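Entry for the shared binder. Reason: the reviewer on the internal report wants the predicted structure included alongside the sequence.
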Amino acid sequence: MAIELKSPAFKNNEYIPSRYSCEGENISPALAWSGAPAGTKSFVLIIDDPDAPSGDWVHWLVYDIPADKGSLSEDASLESYGKEGKTSFGNLGYGGPCPPPGKPHRYFFKLYCLDTMLYLGAGITKQQLLKAIEGHVLAQGQLMGLYKR
């Protein structure tokens, strides 16, 4: 089952404005979703860049987003949405697009509807998060944005 994930900042397969990148304010864009199935207890958001020179680069991990949420505001604060995992930048929180100069990179915003809350501490890795959601995904949605320096 798929849910719809959108941003007022950019459309699917279009460029992410620089304000959300390391060249701008480096804040998270607003996101909104709809179509979560009955039984959804929480959401997980993963933003990554598979085109990074070192392989998959994690830009943001958010989990235990309450099921009554249907959006994240621009520059979302931790208290409003759940817990954060460790990014490839080595910290918690959003890290915007910051590719090396050259060709555009793809940034995948993936939202998962879960049948449970994870109740994990902050700072887990993407691999730990993916393992934790195994068998709990009811639906998912994706938004892909591009960025080039």
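Summary line for the report: The CA atoms of residues 19 and 28 lie 9 Å apart.
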